[in-house]
Amino acid sequence: MKPLFAVLAMTALPVSAIAETVEIDTATGPQAAPLNPAKVVALDLSAIDTLDALGVEIDGIPNITPPAYLADAFDGVATVGTLFEPDFEALAVMAPDVVFAGGRSQTVIPALAEVAPTLDMTIDATKLIDDAKSRITAYGAIFGLSPEAQALTQELEAALADAKAMAEGKGDALILMTNGGKVSAYGDKSRFGWLHTAVGIPEAYPDVADGRHGEAVSFEFIADVDPDWIFVVDRSAAIGQEAEAAAVTLDNPLVAGTKAGQNGQIVYLDSAPLYLAGGGVQSLNHTLSEIMTALRDSNS
């Protein structure tokens, strides 16, 4: 009996074997992608988000509870393992024409490439908006949906422009993520940093340490920074984990005494789209809508 990876290697279909290809931008630079692939696997929630927005049918998805807005995109679709541990045997049987991976599944891309043509569609947090638009363009080119992709990009750009105009003069902000009773702050180079760089909301504390997991902070720190706005991401809620809610964690006199607390400008964002599918076009538009609603209703 042949080892599993030997079987997988024999079933792999390199991009070069596909009759037609199109060059697109990926996280690793320009690459040839199959044109109009019939069987599609997506192991990245931001990719699933944007493919769903374009109306692309997906044949294989990760075994994960999606944000509510992606429930229909996941309904009835075959699962092919998790983001971190794909089911290579199921993928070999499925024989997809293309696998879109990235983000949480980025580390397994070399192994995936042994099974099927795999594209690294990871979105870099430090240039999230640019990468998000690049991915929209890429998916549009692959599936012959460039006009639809252009319309999505224009819609996103319009929302960003509106949010930026509304944010002008509304003060600074501190981005916090809660995880049970723990609190971390995120700066402009973080996964949530586009709220500063693209929307134009100044950082209340520009010296937050860079890093994927933010910088652990105390309630005293939040009080000292005294931001005009606090934008809150509840990680536990995002991943469906039972834990202390963000509103409970931050319910104390130190946070309440900040300008954000005093003016009703602590904004609890819908965390699953932002945390799980950050960079997907629907996720971005959803968060922008929340931000604009908060800015529109503010007293500042």
Description:
The structure is a single chain. The chain has 15 helices and twelve strands. Strands 10-9-8-11-12 form a five-stranded mixed β-sheet. A three-stranded parallel β-sheet has the order 3-6-7. The chain is α/β, with parallel strands linked by helices and 300 residues long. Helix 1 packs parallel to helix 4, helix 6 runs antiparallel to helix 7 and helix 7 packs parallel to helix 15. Helix 5 links the parallel strand 6 and strand 7. The chain has two domains: 140 residues, Rossmann fold (3-Layer(aba) Sandwich); 133 residues, Nitrogenase molybdenum iron protein domain (Rossmann fold, 3-Layer(aba) Sandwich).
Strands across the major sheet, in which order? 10-9-8-11-12
CATH hierarchy class name of the largest domain: Alpha Beta
CATH architecture of the largest domain: 3-Layer(aba) Sandwich
Q: How many separate domains make up the residues?
A: 2
Number of helices: 15
Number of strands: 12
Would you tell me the structural class of the helices and strands? alpha/beta
Radius of gyration: 21 Å
Q: What share of residues is helical?
A: 25-40%
Which term fits the overall shape? Answer: globular
Unreliable residue stretches = 1-18
* Full CATH superfamily name of the largest domain: Nitrogenase molybdenum iron protein domain
As a percent range, the share of strand residues is 15-25%
Q: List the helices and strands in order.
A: HEEEHEHEHEHEHHEEHEHEHHHHEHH
Average per-residue pLDDT, rounded, comes to 92
N-to-C CA distance: 70 Å
Pfam families: Peripla_BP_2
GO cellular component, one term: outer membrane-bounded periplasmic space
Organism: Donghicola eburneus
Subcellular location: Cell envelope
